[in-house]
Amino acid sequence: MRDKKTRHDVSATMLEKINTPADLRRLNRKNLPQLADELRQFIIETIATHPGHLASSLGVVELTVALHYVFNTPDDKLIWDVGHQAYTHKIITGRRDRFHTIRTKGGISGFPKMSESDYDAFGTGHSSTSISAALGMAVASKLQGEKGRQHIAIIGDGSMTGGEAFEALNNVAVTKSNILVILNDNGISIDKSVGGLSRSLVHITASPRYNRFREAVWRRLGGDSDRKSRSRNFFRKVLFLVKSALLKENNLFESLGLRYFGPIDGHDLDELVTVLDRMKRLKGPKLLHIVTKKGKGLLEAERNPIEYHAPGKFDAATGKKITSEHCATKPPKYQDVFGQTIIELAERNPKIVGITPAMPTGCSLNLMMERMPDRAFDVGIAEQHAVTFAAGLASQGMVPFCNIYSSFMQRAYDQVIHDVALQGLPVVLCLDRAGLVGEDGATHHGVFDLACLRPIPNLTICSPLDERELRNMMYTAQLPGHGPVVIRYPRGAAEHSDWHTPFDELETGKGRCLRRGDQVAILSLGPLGNRALHAADRLKQKGVSAAVYDMRFLKPIDTEILDYVISARFSKVVTVEDGVAKGGLGSAVAEYFEQKHCPTPVTILGVPDRFVEHGSVSELYQMCGLDVEGIVDAAL
To answer: Could you tell me which of 451, 441, 431 has the C-alpha nearest to residue 619?
Structure first.
C-alpha cells in the first residue's frame, strides 16, 4: 500500500497546471511538497498499468522538483544517470499527457533522449556517463563565454561504481569548470550496491561527528553572504569548516579536488531548495551528497526495491504485483536456465566461478551467490573490470563464467580483445539479453555483439536454439582446451518446459540440420531458428520445400554445412539472425560463398543499419522482417 505519510488528496491537482518548469517556478515554495506528492501518485498510478522502471524515479521526486525549481532549465543542463531516474523529469518537462505511452512503440522513451525534448540534455541509457558528459558541456560553455550556465550531473542507483565516473571525477577538478555532481545515495543499483565506495558512503552518512559539522555548516550558510565585504571571508571559513570535517573522515571526493557538501535528506524539499540555491552561486566543481530511499512512497517498493526496480503491472492502491495464473509447465526464462545450470556445473567442477557487473538478479547469478557465496562475484557496474578480473582468474587455472548483458558488453570490448582473446584465456562470456529486447529501446538492444566479436581471433562464438542447447554450450565451454567462448542468448522465456536434460558435449563449430528440403535453404543462429522452422511449415503449404539449418556456431562456422548448401544448388539461401545484418552470420555466409565462387544469392535477414527504437519484441521483429512472415517473404 502507499505510504500514508506521503499520500495527498489531489482531487484538484496542482500537477495539471505544470506543463513546463517555468510553471513550476511560479509556484509558492510552500506548495512544492504537495506537488511532489501528486507527482509520486501520478507515477505510481501510471506505471501500475503501463510497466516501466518504478522505484528509481519514486526516490528522486523531491530532488527533481527542487532542481527544476532552482535552476533555469533547459538553459541550465540536467544530466540524469542512470536514465531510469528521470520519470518525474519527463512529467515536469511537457510530457505528462504522453507519459502513459512510455516505452511503447511510437511513445516516449523510458530514458532521457535528446531528440525527444530540449530538456533532455544528454541521452543516458547506460550508467556512469553523466559526469563525463556534464564536464564536456561545462568546458564548452566556458570556451563559448557562457559563464552563467549551470551543469548538473545527477548520478545514482549505483552508477558511481562505474569506472567512467571515476575517470571523469579525476578530470573534473583540474578543469575548474562550473559543474555540480549530485550523488543520489540510496544504497541500491538494480541490486544492492557493493564495494568499497558503498561502504565509504555509509561511513560518511552514519558518522555522528560529521553530522554535527553538517548542521553547523548549513546554519553558517544561512548568513548574509550578499555583502561583498563579508562574502569572501564567510565562504572561506565555511568551506574550511566543511573540508576540515571531511578530510578527517578520509573523504574520497575531497581528495580528488571536489568541494563536498552533505549528506542531506533527499526527501526534504525545503532543505534541497535552500542548499541548491546556495550551491549554484559557488563556482567550480562541487559535489552534493543526498540520501534517498529507492521506491519512496510505495511501501512495497520501499521494502523490495530490487523487485520493484521494474515490477511489471501492479495494483496501484496496494502495490501488490499482478501475476498471471501459475502454470507448472511454463518454460523458464533463459536467465534462470543459466542460473541453475552454472550451479550444477560448479558442483561438478570446483574451478568454476561466476561474475556479474551489478546484475545478479537480472542474470540469475544471485542463485549461485546464495548457494556458493565464495565462488560468485558481483563487481559493481564495472564491465571492463569484470572481464579482466575473469581473465586474471582464468590465468591461474580457474574457469570463470562472466555474465554481462549484450549491450553492456560493448563497454568492455578492449578487455575482450586485449586481456582475454589475445592471451587465449578460457573465459566463458555469457551475453544475456542478446537481440532485440523490446521496451528498453535502442540503448539496450543487444544487436551488435555478433558483428563486433566475430573479427576477434581466438574466440568461439555460439548461440543456442533453445534452453537445452544453452545447457550443452555451457557444459562444453567449461571443458579443458576450449579457450575463450562467447555464448549469447535472449531475454525472456525459453522454448521448452522440460529443459532440465542431461549434459551433452557439442563439437565446436558444428551445426545441424533441423529440416530437410531441396528448394530453399534457411540458415539460422540462435532461437530465431524456431521461427525459421515455422516459416518452413508455411513455405511447405505454399508448395516450397525449405531446408532449415541451425548453425549453432558463428565462429568457427560449419563449413561442411555451407559446402553442402553450395553443392545442393538451392535456388535461394536465407540467413536469419537477431543481430545487425552487417557483419554477422549473413556476412560470414556471403563471404564464404564468394570464396567458393558460388552464384547462389544470399538474402540476409537481420537488424537494419539504424538504431531500432522501443516497442514490444514482437512489434520490433515484425518491423525488422524477422517474424515468420518476414522469413517466408524472403524465401519466396
So the answer is: 441
Please state, in angstroms and as integers, the Cα–Cα distance from residue 568 to each residue in 510, 517, 576, following that order. Answer: 19, 10, 19
pLDDT tens figures, 264-293: 999 999 999 999 999 998 888 999 999 999
Spatial CA neighbour of 100 closest among 35, 175, 44, 143: 44
Residue 179 neighbours by CB distance under 10 Å? 28
**Identity (one letter) of the amino acid at 368?**
M
Pair 114, 123: CB distance under 8 Å = yes
Grid coordinates representing 30 are 510552500
Q: Which helix (H) or strand (E) holds 156?
A: strand 151-156
Enzyme catalytic residues: 294, 383, 411
Cell for 238? Answer: 565555511
Cα(363)–Cα(346) distance, integer angstroms? 16
**Positions in the chain whose pLDDT score sits under 70:** 1-12, 187-250, 324-329
SS3 300: helix
Q: Which amino acid is at 51?
A: P
Three cell numbers at 155?
Answer: 548520478
SS3 (DSSP) at 319: coil
- The model scores a pTM over 0.70: yes
| pLDDT value, residue 222 | 52
Contact in structure between 435 and 490 (CB atoms under 8 Å): yes
The amino acid at 163? G
Q: What is the distance, to the nearest Å, from the Cα of residue 520 to the centroid of all Cα atoms in its chain?
A: 39
Decide: residue 152, CB within 10 A, 0-12 exposed, 13-18 middle, 19+ buried.
Answer: buried
User: What grid cell was written down for 520?
Assistant: 530453399
In whole angstroms, give the CA distance from residue 339 to residue 333. Answer: 10
Contact 42, 102 (CB under 8 A): no
Q: State how far the Cα of 31 lies from the Cα of 27, in Å rounded to an integer.
A: 7
Closest CA to 570 of 540, 600, 608: 600
Q: What's the residue count for the chain? A: 636
Q: Give exposure, 514-540, as e/b (b: 16+ Cβ within 10 Å).
A: bbebeebbbbbbbbbbbbbbebbebbe
SS3 assignment, position 376 = strand
Contacts of residue 219, Cβ cutoff 8 Å, sequence gap at least 6: none
Q: What is the pLDDT of residues 350-401, one digit of tens each?
A: 999 999 998 999 999 999 999 999 999 999 999 999 999 999 999 999 999 9
Place of cell 548538473: 152
How buried is residue 137: exposed, middle or buried, by Cβ count under 10 Å (0-12/13-18/19+)?
buried
Closest to 352 in 3D by CA, of 390, 387, 401 = 401
Contact criterion met (CB below 8 Å) for 495 and 467: yes
C-alpha cell at 314: 501492479
State yes or no: cis peptide before 263, omega within 30 of 0: yes
* CB-CB contact of 297 with 267 (8 Å): no
In the DSSP assignment, the letter for residue 37 is H
* Residue among 314, 317, 311, 203 nearest 263 (CA): 203
Q: Residue 186 in contact with residue 353, Cβ under 8 Å?
A: no
